[in-house]
C-alpha cells in the first residue's frame, strides 16, 4: 500500500483465493463476491450454509469458504428445506440458475415458497442454460436465439418468459421478493443490500426470501461482457423490471 | 497533487472482461492489449494513475474480485 | 497405419476445426477416422481440444491418452499434453504466444510462430490454425493437400467460401515452414 | 422402555423410527405406505422430529439429502412408483455417502399397477434403480416385528457406513397388524464431523457433493465406494436358515414370501420331503457364500426361488449357486400372494 | 436417399430419428446428450415433427407417454441423471405397452458424477430401473453408424412389440464424429388401432392405462408382458462374434468398450494368444444361449467381461456361463475409457 | 314415460351405464356427468380425448365413453401436452385432483400453462387427498384436520392453501381461467358453461384453458354430502372465490 | 291437476346422497329410509308426486346421473 | 391350531373392529395372530373386510383365500366369500339385511338376525357386530370371553369405555343365540 492511503475495498477473504471458472464478465462471479462480502462483514461464516445448483455455479463450493452442499438439478430448494429444518438457527441459501429454479425445479421452488420455508433463494436469471452450452431457458426472451431456439424463441409453441418473482410474490408465506441486477455499480450495490435484507428477514424467521438477479451469459449470448450489459438494459429489464415485489412491514424486519 | 485513490489489479485473477474499464468515471483503467496473463487474457491495469477518485465502481463491477481500492487518507 | 493426434488450445483459436478438417479429409481419402472433442463445462476454463484418429483399420477408441502427434496452441495445453506425446512422436507448438518451450528430448519438437506469420504474412491471425495444420500434414503425410481443400469446401458454410483461398495460402505457408 | 403392542406394520415402522432417534421425516402419501406419515403426524407433538409432507417423492428424497447432509437422522418412506421417482436422488445420496433410511412398501407393478403386496422391486432395490455404480444396503423384513428391528438396524448401518439403507417391505407387512415388541428409545447424538452444520474456525469447510467432473477423480470416488461395498459385503450379510440339515430341496425366499415358504417346508417335511428354507435377510449384500456352500452339499438336489414377482432374486440365487445345482423359480405377480398349497403343489408336480 | 456424412453421434442420432419418421420429440438438455435436441431444433423447419424442450426429464417422458398413446412415433433422449428421473414414466409406458424410443447417452455416475463416457447404467437399463417386472429392449451401439442403424431398428421393434426400446450409448459415441451412411428416409404411417385418437362410432373407446387395481387382473397383465418378453427373447437376440474360432479366452464387451476389446483381441492374437470377442448388441434380451454354447466348448478357458463400470454386465455373462467356465471382470469407472494396452496387460498379468 | 310428458333431462349416453365408484355426493361424479353432457350435446365423442390423474378419478375411463389415458400421478399435464401436440385438432382435457395438479404435478401444470398448451385443465380442488384416504393437500384450508394434519393445518410449517387459478392466471399464454363449484344447481350450471367455454377456446387455439372446481370429499372430510356443501359455502369459497380470473376478448371466442 | 313434471330415479344408481332432496324447491323428494338398494344405501324417491315443477334442480345436483326429469307437454 | 377367518360387510358396520378385537384377545392369550384389512380405493365401493389368523404357531401368510370361518354382514360380501369358506368351515351371516341366503351344503351355515336383535333387544344397532362376534367365539372357542373384555378395554378409546357394558351384553346375546 502506498503511504498515505488506506484500503477501502478488497476481495473478501471468505471468497477463497482461487480463480473462478466463470467466463469473463459473468455475474455468477459478482454474486459470489457479494455473498462473501456479507459473510465476511457480518462475520457469519459459521452460520451460513449454501446449496449449489446444477448449472454453471455447480462449482460454487470451490470458491465460497462456507459449508455447502451440491443439489441435484432443480432440487436445491428441497435440499435447502432439509438443511434449514434441521438447523433452524443457521442462515441457509440456495443459489440457482433459471433452468434449475424455473424449469426442472419449478415444483420445489413453488412449494418451498408456499410453505414459507425460511431460507433465501438467490436466483440467477440469465435467460439461458449456461452450463450445458446455451439452450433456451423458461426465461429466455421472446425472439432470443439459443441453441434450442435457433430461430428465436417462439411464444406460440414455447410460451413467454416466466416471471418468477411476480409468481412467487403471490404466495402468502413468502416474506420478501426483490429483483436486482449487477449491470451497473448502483444496481450491484442494491443487489448486495437485497441479499443482506433477505438474510436479516430469514434470521427473524419471517418466511421465504427470494432475490432474483437479472444476470448475463456473455458466452452463450455470444457477445462481449460489455454488450451483455446493453442487452440487460435494453431487452431484459423492460421485461423483468427491477424492484421490490413484496416485503414485510419495516417494524418486523428491524 | 497526488490522486485521491488508486487501485491494484491482480493480473492472474483478471479475466479482461472490461467491466471495470467502462465503469470508471475518470477513465483511468484500460485493458492491456499487448500482453496477456497465463490464461491468454488481456488484463486490466491503471492507464492513468492520477485520475482515480477511489469511487470503487471498478471494484464493485469486477466479477472476479480482482481489484483492491485504496483511498487517500484525509 | 493408425495416427492418434490431439489439437489443443484456447477456445476461439480454431483447434476443433483443425481436427475436423483433417479428419474429414482423411475420410474422403477412404480412411477410417474419429474426431472426439473435449466437452462440457471444462470448456468454461477457456481451453478446448480434440482428438483425431486416422487409420486404415476401424478405430477402436476415440479417446486415447497418448498421441503420435500433438498440436498445441497455448501454454496450458503444452503443459497438459507434452508428457502425453508418445516416444518418437511429434509435438508442434505455436511459438509466438507460448513462452515456456517444451523440454522433452525423446520426441520431435516443432516450434512454429503461426500467430506471427499469419498476422504479418497473411494479415489475418485467424488462419494461424491452418498454418499449423499445413505443417502437420507436411510432416506426417496424413492426407493430401487436395483432400484438405475438399474438406474446406465441404465443411465451411457457403457464406465463408470466399475465405478458402486465404486458408489455402495458410496451409501452403505452414507446409513451407517445416 | 420396551413395550408390547398390537400394531400395523406401517405404524410400527413409524414408532420404531421415533424410538431410534428420528430427527427428520420427509414423505409423500401413497398406498400402501401412507400410515407411516400419518402416524408420524399424529405423534409429532410428543417428540422433537421435524415432519414435512413434501410436495412429491422427488422433493422428499432431496429434503432427505439436505437433512442428512446437515447431520440429522432422517428417513423417507414410499411405495413403488414413488420409489422410482426417488432414483436420481438416491444415486446422489449414495455417491455423497450420506446416512439415511428409505423404506419401500412395495405394491404390484409395473406402472400404476395395483396396491396389493409384491416383491417386484427387488431388482430396483438391489441392482441400483438409479444411474451409476452404487448399492444400498437392503433389508427384507418379513413381519411387523422385523420391520421394527430393521429400522433400528438400518439407522445403525447407515451411520456406520455413511450409506443409505433401505427396507424392501411390502403392502401386506405394511398393512397388517401383528404383535410387536418395541425396543427402548435411543438418545441419538449424531457424531458427524463431515456434516454441513456451519464452518467453524477450527475446521475446513464441509462440502457434500457427488460431482467430480474429472474422470480420474470420479474414478477415485468410485473406487472408494466399491471399497466400502466390499467391506459391507464381508461384514453385514444376514440370513436365516430353516430345517437345512440333511436337506435336498432348498427354497430361497425373502420377506412375506419367506413366511409362506416356511409353511411349505413344514408341510413338505410332514410328507417326508427333505425340504428347507434359506432366507436372505440382507438382500444386498446378498448371502452369496452361504448359498454357494449349500450348493456344494452333495445331498442337495436343487434350489427353488419363491418370490412375489416374475423372477428377480432367482438371478442372485443362480449367481451364488453358479451352476452347481439346478435353480428353479416359482412366483406370482401383480399383488397376488401365493398360498403354501400352490407352492407345494407346484414343486411336487414339476420338481420332485 | 442414403447419404454419407461425417457426423457427431448425437447429431446422427437426431438425423436418423428424422429419417425413421419421427413425429414427436420431447427432451431436456443434458451433457453429453444436448446435441440431439439442438440438432432437432435446427432441423425443425424442414420437417413435420413436433419438438418440445420440456421443463424436465420427468415432463419429457410423460409427454412421450401421451404422444405414444396418441399413436405417434416418438422419442426422448437424455443422459444418466435424467434417465433416473424417467424411471417412473418408463415403468408406466412398459406396462401400458406403448412403442417409443429412449436413448441414454451415459456419463459416469453415480450422482452428478462426471460427464465423461461410461457404461455404469447397464443394470438400470437391463434389469429395470423402475418399479415392477418389466423389460425394455436395450440396444448397445458401438459407433456413430450403429447409433443410426439402431434408431431405425429401435422404432421398428417398438412398433412390432408395442414396447419401449432404448439405446444404451455413451458420451464418447454421442460426442465423437465418424463417417456415417444415413439410410433412406421412411414414410411412416402409423397403424395403431389401439391409439387414443378419438373414439369413432365404429369402435369401442381406447384406454391406455397401467392400472389394474385387482391383483388377479394385474397378474394377467404381468403374464401378458412376460409372454411378450419371452417372444422377444426368442426372436430378437443380436450379437457379434469376432475371432471366436479355436478361441481360449473370450472377452465379452459391448458398446464403445467392444471396439477397444477388438483391438485387444487383435493384439493378443498377434502375440499368439487365442483370444476372441463376443459382443452383445441387444443388452436385453441378453445373448445368453450363444454364450452358454461358447462356455460348453472345451478349448475355452475363461470369459473376461470388460466394461466401463464396476462390473455389471459380468453378472449376465456369469448367468449365461452358469459355472461352466470362470468369468472374470475388468473395468474402469467414473468416465475413464480403458486403453487396449491396460486391458491386455491386466489379462496377461492376472488371467493367463 | 307418462303420456303427456316429455323427457327434459336424462343421463347422457356417453356416460356409460355403470355405477361410478365415487362416494355418495362426491362432485367427481357431477363433473364426469357434466363433461359427458357436453360431449353428447355437441356430438364430439370422436374429438375428445381425456387424461385421468392418479386420485379418486383414476378410474374415470371406466365411465366416460371416450378415448382416455391414465397418467402417472401429477403428470397429466405432460401427458395431455403429448397427446394434443400430436393431435392438434382434437379437444384434449386433463382431469386432475389437487394433490395431482397442485402438489406433485406443480411443475408440469405451471409449464404447460406457461407454454400455453392448448388443452383444458379440469382441476378438482377438494382440499384433500381423497384416494389415499384423506391426507393434507396443498389446498387444504388453514386449521383443517386431515390424517396428516390431525391437529389442523398449521400455516407456520405447512404454509397457506395454494390458489392455483390465481397463480396460473399470471402466465401470459393462459387464455381462460375460471373457478366454479357444484354446490348449488346454479353453480353447477355455471360449471358446465365454463367447461363449454374452455372447450370452445381450445378449439380456437387461443391458449391454455383452466377450470378449477371447488369440490368436496364427504368421506374424508368426515361429513355428510349435505354438510360438505355447507363447508364449501362457509369455508372454502371465502378463500377460493368463484369467478373468471382471465378470459380472451369476446370477439376472439365467438 | 296433473303435476308440471315428475322424475324417475334409478334405485341402483342412486347413492342416497340426499343432494337432490335438499335442492328440490317443492320438497317432493326424500330418501327411502326403510329400504336400501343392493349396495345398502337408502335411495331417493318421489314422496310427493304432485308438486314437481320439472325445474331439474334435483337432476343437475345428482352426481350420479340417477335422475331423469319429465315435463308436462304444454 | 390355525384358524383363518374373514369378516366382511359394508364400511361402517364395524367389521374391522370385530377382527381387531378378536385378534387382540387372542394375542393376550399368548396366541400368534395376524390381522389384515382390505385397503385402498376399493373401499370407495363401500365394502370392507379383514382377515384374521390365529394360531399356536407363527402365522405364515396374513392373506389367505380360503377361510375356516367367514362372518358376512351384507349381500355383496356373502356373494364374494361364500365360495371361499373351506369345506366343513363355518359361515355366519347377518340375516336381517341379507336377503338371498347362502346355498352351500358342505359348510355350517349360521344365520343370525344381529341387526334386528341389536335394535330390538339392545336398542343400539351399532353393537350388532359384537353379537356376531359373540356367536363366533361361542361356536369356535377361539378366545375366552374374558379376553374379549380385556381387548375391549385396551382397544376402545377411553371416551368410549362407558359402552363396554353394552358391548358385553351384545357379546353375551350373540353367544346365547347359537
Ligand atoms: C437431471 C438433470 N437434467 C439435466 C442436467 C443438465 N444440466 C446441467 S446444468 C443445466 C441447466 C443450467 O442452466 P441454469 O440453471 O440456467 O444455470 P446457468 O448455467 O445458466 O447458470 C442442465 C439442463 C442435469 N445435470 N441433471
Ligand atoms: C408417484 C405417486 N405418488 C403417490 C401416489 C399416491 N397417490 C395416489 S392419489 C394421490 C393423491 C390424490 O389426491 P388428489 O390428487 O387431490 O385427488 P382426489 O383423490 O382428492 O380426487 C396420491 C398421493 C401415487 N399413486 N404415485
Ligand atoms: S456459460 Fe454463461 S453463465 Fe456460465 S460461466 Fe459462462 S457466462 Fe457465466
Ligand atoms: S476506483 Fe473509481 S476512479 Fe478509481 S479506478 Fe476504480 S472506477 Fe476508476
Ligand atoms: S472487471 Fe475485473 S476481471 Fe474484468 S477486466 Fe476489470 S479487473 Fe479484469
Ligand atoms: S374419497 Fe372423497 S374425493 Fe374420493 S370419491 Fe370419496 S368423496 Fe369423492
Ligand atoms: S325437477 Fe325440481 S321440482 Fe321436480 S323433483 Fe326435481 S327438484 Fe323437485
Ligand atoms: S342426488 Fe342422486 S344419488 Fe343423491 S340421493 Fe338423489 S338420486 Fe340419489
Ligand atoms: Mg441460466
Ligand atoms: Mg383432492
Describe this structure in words.
The complex is a heterooctamer, with two copies of chain A (254 residues), two copies of chain B (74 residues), two copies of chain C (178 residues) and two copies of chain D (352 residues). With 254 residues, chain A is α/β, with parallel strands linked by helices. Chain A has a single domain (28-253), classed as 3-Layer(aba) Sandwich (Rossmann fold), CATH 3.40.50. Chain A contains ten helices and ten strands. Chain A has helices at residues 27-42, 76-86, 98-104, 106-115, 155-158, 164-169, 185-204, 218-221, 225-239, 250-253, and strands spanning 5-9, 48-52, 67-70, 91-97, 120-125, 128-129, 135-136, 174-181, 208-214, 243-246. In chain A, helix 1 crosses helix 7 (185-204). The longest helix of chain A is centred in the C-terminal third of the chain and has 20 residues, at 185-204. Chain B has one domain: Alpha-Beta Plaits (2-Layer Sandwich). Chain B is 14% helix and 23% strand. Chain B has helices at residues 19-23, 57-61, and strands at residues 5-9, 29-31, 44-46, 67-72. In chain B, the strands form two sheets. Chain B has a two-stranded antiparallel ribbon with strand order 1-4. A two-stranded antiparallel sheet of chain B has the order 2-3. The longest helix of chain B is centred in the N-terminal third of the chain and has 5 residues, at 19-23. Chain B starts with a strand and ends with a strand. Chain C has one domain (3-176): Pyruvate-ferredoxin oxidoreductase, PFOR, domain III (Pyruvate-ferredoxin Oxidoreductase, domain 3), CATH 3.40.920.10. Chain C contains six helices and six strands, in the order βαβββαββαααα. In chain C, helix 5 (145-155) packs antiparallel against helix 6. Chain C is globular. The mean pLDDT of chain C is 93. Chain C is α/β, with parallel strands linked by helices. Chain D has helices at 9-19, 35-43, 57-69, 80-85, 87-96, 122-128, 144-161, 171-175, 215-235, 255-270, 288-295, 313-321, 340-350; strands at residues 3-8, 24-27, 50-53, 74-78, 100-106, 137-139, 164-170, 177-182, 207-208, 239-242, 249-252, 275-280, 282-284, 302-307, 327-331. In chain D, 41% of the residues lie in helices and 20% in strands. Chain D has 352 residues and is α/β, with parallel strands linked by helices. Chain D has two domains: 3-235, Rossmann fold, CATH 3.40.50; 239-350, Rossmann fold (3-Layer(aba) Sandwich), CATH 3.40.50.920. Chains in contact: A-B, A-C, A-D, A-E, A-F, B-C, C-E, D-E, D-F, D-H, E-F, F-G, F-H, G-H. Chains D and E meet through helix 4, helix 5, helix 6, helix 9 and helix 12 of D and helix 4, helix 5, helix 6, helix 9 and helix 12 of E. Strand 9 of chain E pairs parallel with strand 3 of chain F, so a sheet runs across the interface. The site of one magnesium ion (MG) has 9 residues of chain A, from helix 3 and strand 6.
